[in-house]
Amino acid sequence: MIREFLRREDSKRCSVSRHELERRWSAVRQSMAAQGTDYLVIQSQQRFVGGYFRWFTDIPGTNFNITAIFPLDDDMTIISHGPSEPASPIHPPEWALRGVKERINTPAWPNVWWEDSWDPGKAAEVIMRKKPKTVGLVGMGNMSASFYENLQKGLPGVSITNATELVDRIRMVKSEEELQLHREAAYMHERSYEIAKRAIKPGKTVFEVQSEIRIAQILEGSEEQQLGIIFDQPDASKLSQLSWGNTYIRRTFKKGDVVNLLMESSIAGGYWYDLRRFLCFGSVPQKLQEAMEIAKEARSIMEINCKPDLLPGVALAASDEFLKSKGCPAEHRVGGHGQGLDLVERPVFHREEPAKLEEGMVVSLHPTAETKHALACLADTYVITNSGAVPIYSNLYDDNEIAILD
């Protein structure tokens, strides 16, 4: 075991502890036993909101299908892309795995329709070895339709349920080890924000600024980066560019621009922080400052209403009531959301979210104040305590004034 630990530490920037993984597995198996579930099946196809797989395995998702089969009373099986038998499986690397007894590879691609049955066929073979009664699927939004359809065919007579809620109840509340990884993400965002302040200059493009920030984050060990910049002169239609996709704004920054900066990146280990700040060349427009004060107060109202045993909708309703009293519309999308191994996870600050808040949940709060003349928003990451939502890193949280750029 010591040799395995040393090899893993030599080959990964960050591994969660065996103790942390066993905490998760034990809690899930207790709930499985209580509900009469024999197996869970978890699939990931991406790394921004595909964190269920990683939560079970400490292995990031991929751009291809990767599936974990989690039994009630045995170690896991992982099915991923690679050479089929009789060749030995190569993915994921054996040294990286804990709590896994079997690796199965198939050369299936998710965009080749006639291979659709290969991975679910292997999953069904593994599951049917023990003649289960009930199989639960976790994170069905991350599971392909073809996988679900073919898994059903391979499990005749087996009850298939949506077991996502079973896992969410455990996953939403973070351990101290997870909170520390969120803090590491916060430290990185603090440094990244300082880089952004220096990088945003007249004559530079959004791409150049985003590249400077991303390179610095990658060198710190960041695994995924989502950077968004919206900018233009006050009262002008806004230009927007994300760090992924095919948007590319050729207009450079110039004096007088107002900049809306979003940084959502994960640190080594896969945990995220959500930061949004506004910056200006020259003086801050009065209408923007007024909108920002409304946004700050709305967020403070959400903070004090994020107490254990309350629904997220309570905080959202209180914020919406305040926003409307200031002539702003209620939140159009969500006023915040959970974070962890996913950029966005439950609980979601939406009127229909059924999960009550619990101490130890990690959330991002970001109500938007939209007046007749300006729009303003702030975002930071918090942890739920008995007294409300507390910033996970107060130094960065307190640096929330509209920054003046040279």
Characterise the protein shown here.
The chain is of the alpha+beta class and 406 residues long. The protein is built from eleven helices and 18 strands. It has a six-stranded mixed sheet with strand order 4-3-2-1-5-6, with helices on both faces. Strands 8-7-9-10-18 form a five-stranded mixed sheet. Strands 12-11-13-16-17 form a five-stranded antiparallel sheet. The radius of gyration is 23 Å and the shape is globular.
| Number of separate structural domains | 2
Task: Classify the fold: give the CATH topology of the largest domain.
Answer: Creatine Amidinohydrolase
User: For the residues shown, what is the average pLDDT?
Assistant: 94
Shape: globular
Task: Name some characteristics of this structure.
406 residues, alpha+beta, Creatine Amidinohydrolase, Chain A, domain 1, Creatine Amidinohydrolase, 2 domains, five-stranded mixed sheet, 34% helix
